[in-house]
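Troubleshooting log. The previous structure file for this entry was overwritten by mistake, so regenerating from the original sequence record. Sequence copied from the archived sheet and checked twice against the printout by T.R.
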Amino acid sequence: MSRQKIGARAATAPPPPAPTEPEPARPRRRRRAALLVAVAVVLLAAAVAAGWFLYGRGAGASVPEPTAEPGEVAHVEAISVNLADGHYLRLGLGLQLTADAHGAPDPAPALDAAIALFSGRTIAEVQDPVARDALTAELVTVLQETYDGEVMDVYLTNYVTQ
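Regenerated output below.
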């Protein structure tokens, strides 16, 4: 064991740190946090209710129209349509009629709509499958209006470019 030298001070160890206790939250902060949570819950509930009334059952949800029963297919003789840059398109159509259609429709309005829609386009436009599908869908829309809903769909029965 070692002895302390005369005149030397004894080394004192620092006192152990006092355990720190968490500061109690102030009542004001608790009230503010509770108020923010309550406001957020009310806003969320209002948004859900508004969505339900506007887009859900509360707004008288739209009922899908019943689809018409398909009837016969009326074939339209193929025609040649002038494209841009001296090219042409040979186009034949099949009109899918509804079961309620009254006899074979006059093909002249269908041919007129097809000529108006396809003529003057570039050959690249009419050969692209995506563009061709878009043009066919547009033709269906025009023919449904022209034939007062008696035409359901259009089939391209002849489609040759040159």
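The CA atoms of residues 119 and 126 lie 10 Å apart. Archived copy saved in two places this time.
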